[in-house]
Amino acid sequence: xxxxxxxxxxxxxxxxxxxxxxxxxxxxxxxxxxxxxxxxxxxxxxxxxxxxxxxxxxxxxxxxxxxxxxxxxxxxxxxxxxxxxxxxxxxxxxxxxxxxxxxxxxxxxxxxxxxxxxxxxxxxxxxxxxxxxxxxxxxxxxx
Length: 143
Known about the structure:
By secondary structure, the protein is mainly alpha-helical. The protein is built from two helices and three strands, in the order ααβββ.
């Protein structure tokens, strides 16, 4: 214990007293500003990643619908039919969890016998808005 007191006294004599409260507050403020800027930038990328994942998911399900058409000569009446196990097969085509978009909403599916439409409500989770992500007939924003 005496050794620490001596070291502290020697440091005090040399003018090394540590950081002031103001200096500590400035450092904390700078760290907060940097963390906020990084967090804001990263959040934007997460939103775009969900949109890209939804597009890939819808394309994947559309491919499964086309395979279903090839095997059964018609599209399924409901999207849930892809998640049901068929006779003679070990497992279903898709899992039920794969029939929901990244925002945890059910995908919207319709068919007229010759074609189908598969949509997600998009980030706002509302069907019929301009941020919908769709595949199929009348698709807006086709690439």
